[in-house]
Amino acid sequence: MSIDVELTDLAYGGDAVGRYEGRVLFVPGGIPGERVRVEIVEERRGHARAELLEILRPAPERVEPAYPQLTDSGCQWQHIAYPAQLTWKAHIVRQLLVRIGKQPDALVHPTIGMPANVPPWHYRNYAVFTVGTAGEIGFKLTDSHDVQDLEECGLLHPALDQVYQLVRRKLIDYFGDTLGQMLQSVTIRGAIGAVSNSATGIAPNAVKAVPTLLILNARPGSMMENPHQLAQELMTIAPGIVGVIIERVGGRYGRVFVGQEFLTDVVLGRRFRISADSFFQVNPIQTSVLVERAMAALEPQRHEVVLDGYSGVGLFSTFLASQCARVIAVESQPSAVMDARAGCALNNQNNITALEGTLERILNQLHYRRERIDIALVDPPRAGCHPKALQALQTMAPRAICYVSCDPSTLARDIATLCSGGRYRLVSAQPVDMFPQTYHIESVALLVRAGKW
Ligand SMILES: C[S@@+](CC[C@H](N)C(=O)[O-])C[C@H]1O[C@@H](n2cnc3c(N)ncnc32)[C@H](O)[C@@H]1O
């Protein structure tokens, strides 16, 4: 049965929100302010999910999707004009900070979007393409194991998109009908920091070869005949490829690689080594903004010891280290810790101690050894900080905590914990749009110690 509803809000997760017979209705593809005809496809207690059938009164922010094939595989917001996407992101952060973070007066600054001269597409340095069992290559559809076959990718930097297209064609030719049985995923990762910044933009026509790593994951149990030969052939398929890694090769191989197993990228003049398994921010233009905002929020002083929790390859550590006495960087992924140590040499820095382990465990050890932490930056994965890490932070009581987050709901949850008992006070949160066309929201929040310690 179809029903007509008014859409009034956007939820974190991407869906527009309306109400029907007292229930909250989630409508993917809608925009607040629109009147739409929908059909309910899933009912739960208190809420329901509906499929958009017809837009009866479109919102002025509605635009034609540039890459319709990506709507159900990651770009849920491409029907919303970019400036409106930014407004909604700040609105969502604020709502979550009020509701989950228990911060009724939360100050949330307007989202910093991609520079006006740069189209908010083709911004990524990294993408993982799934190989479906029928040999299709692309992104997984939301809430499904099906794969949207993609001949090109509107999110990857143009130089990397070209590599993707060539690699895709090569793999289809190489494996033929057996592609879906042989491979599980294809990852393209490029060092585009030097060719994409707010001055040069990422003009799709200026396609230059960039240093690129290709990582193929074999399907478990598959027996690839000559993975070395495939890796060799892929090395020469496009200019710029510096290394090819094939993981989980069955039989006697395990991991096969040709060329380098890492990239070197640049952010604001600093160099970073990035191994295939290490995390690195995906949008280079906005990474610079993120770093600048975090540094401006924390204002590290020359005599201070700074914690960089969830430090990855040492992105924030590198900038913090040049303004403070010492940085203690804590990261659980071994390859990223090795990269961070290599980065110290690349940037001539000797005041960073890169420790391998979980933040929750290492903070306890630091506390036990009576180590001092004057200020802290944490940048956890989407799940947010471990409760023990938050507890240790409260106990060690740095004067300020900069919380960099890629999930505003866990950010809000952790802010509620840090501010409980009046220990910390939220100063403000600054969304930075790292993920245009998607509902994902990156933010930098600043908390300062409150009361007497
Ligand atoms: C969002 S990334 C941030 C990395 C880095 N700050 C950057 O901007 O490049 C989160 C990092 O936390 C690491 N990680 C995940 N769980 C962890 C834990 N419990 N303790 C320490 N590091 C962890 C991941 O390996 C990843 O490198």
Automatic annotation (TrEMBL):
SUPFAM superfamilies tied to this protein: Nucleic acid-binding proteins, S-adenosyl-L-methionine-dependent methyltransferases
Q: Which residues participate in S-adenosyl-L-methionine binding?
A: 281, 310, 331, 379
One Pfam family assigned to this protein is tRNA_U5-meth_tr
- UniProt keyword list: Methyltransferase, S-adenosyl-L-methionine, Transferase
* Occurrences of domain TRAM (ranges): 1-54
Residues of the active site = 406, 406 (nucleophile)
What InterPro entries does the record point to?
MeTrfase_TrmA_AS, MeTrfase_TrmA_CS, NA-bd_OB-fold, SAM-dependent_MTases_sf, TRAM_dom, U5_MeTrfase_fam
Q: CDD domains recorded for this chain?
A: AdoMet_MTases (cd02440)
Does the keyword Cell inner membrane belong to this entry?
no
**Taxonomy, superkingdom:** Bacteria
Instruction: Identify this protein by name.
Output: 23S rRNA (Uracil-5-)-methyltransferase RumA
What does the sequence similarity comment in the record state about its family? Belongs to the class I-like SAM-binding methyltransferase superfamily. RNA M5U methyltransferase family.
Q: Which residues form the signal peptide?
A: none
